[in-house]
Design a protein that fits this description.
The chain has 391 residues and is α+β, with helices and mostly antiparallel strands. It has two domains: 25-55 and 70-284 and 369-390, Sandwich (Jelly Rolls), CATH 2.60.120.590; 289-359, no CATH class. Helix content is 21%, strand content 18%. The chain is built from nine helices and 13 strands. The structure holds 2-oxoglutaric acid and fe (ii) ion. 2-oxoglutaric acid binds at residues 198, 200, 208, 213, 225, 232, 234, 250, 267, 269, 375, 377. Keywords: Dioxygenase, Iron, Metal-binding, Oxidoreductase.
Amino acid sequence: MADKTAGDPSKDLQEYDIFRDSFKYFKKKKPPPDLSTVVELSTSDSPEVERISVLQPSLPPIRGLQPWQDWKVFCHKHMPGFFYIRNPFLSGYQEYWIRRCIQDFPCKPNLCNLDAHIELSDGDNIWELSQSSDTLSSQDKTLVDRLRWVTLGYHHNWDTKLYTADRHSPFPADLDYVSRYLVDVLGLSASFKAEAAIINYYHMDSTLAPHSDHSEFNLEAPLVSFSFGQSAIMLMGTTTKADEPVPVFLHSGDIVVMSGASRLAYHAVPRIISTAARLLPWSKAEKPHSEKGTCSHHEQISTSDSKNVGGRDWSQCDSSAGDDTLLKPFINSELPQNSESQLEWFKNINSYIDESVKNSNFELFHKYLQQIRINMNVRQVFKPGETFQDT
Ligand SMILES: O=C(O)CCC(=O)C(=O)O
Ligand SMILES: [Fe+2]
């Protein structure tokens, strides 16, 4: 069969996968990539980057965020619909979400990569089981070391790339609410509802291949993505791999929202990089900006060994938020539908977050995050009012 594109050089050019080249370039260990082209959106003086002001949201803010007027929100000329919010969390409050990702979200009924290897039952807690495995030699990996992903709400099926009615658990109300609030502040959708999420746990040598997220039935609803722990280079492209992606840094606390033309854009994470101390809010020792192994335009890539997850000294850990067993069902169930119950829920969640931050010792979570990046990737699956019967 004749090649339809033969003799049409513009077509050849169009179909060349420039995105893949860029991914390979930033992934490469030897030689390491030049990071001077990676955009630090919050400090960039490029004319392509624009800081925007946000609108008065209609929803009240959930505890732990800076006032919306103070948020630093940026757009990029080559990525319409892409928003970058530089860490809007108040000091100490990223930890609430970090604890949710490490201690709570991996529990049943949610699904995770470990399900393929071990049978986890209701009440099993991967973090706590890992803490008690003090008999392991330092070569053995604990469960939390082997955690790579968790799915919430409608569980994305990695093989079929489909959501199905039978693979669903209640979407955690707190994550639903904070995602709705972010979408509201950006003025993107009044009807946003978080229905599925993937929590990614990256080690220092992890990458995420170029892809677009299109399994959802509602592709107009924005996608909300939170970063915690170590930094990353994210490649943000367009809807064709023939366009060169923009490499951007993502640091702990940063939030990306992909909407409009960016919702279906190709993106990837070719590299995790050690975060500069100044970008890890809980880091006591402020290291100088240019210290080796930190990340900035001119700084070097860490070659730290991902197998050694900050030692195995779990013993002095008190990571629980006091006796919160009574409150657990209320955060792990769905956001109430009617406004009266929602108001009641809202009062509870704010005091729960405060208590949780006040009473917890996050030392071991911080230690875990010395070698890990967590990404919470939140999506709306259905159009408002629709379910599987309508699709
Ligand atoms: O880790 C990230 O920043 C992006 C994750 C992502 O694209 C995904 O889970 O689909
Ligand atoms: Fe994605």
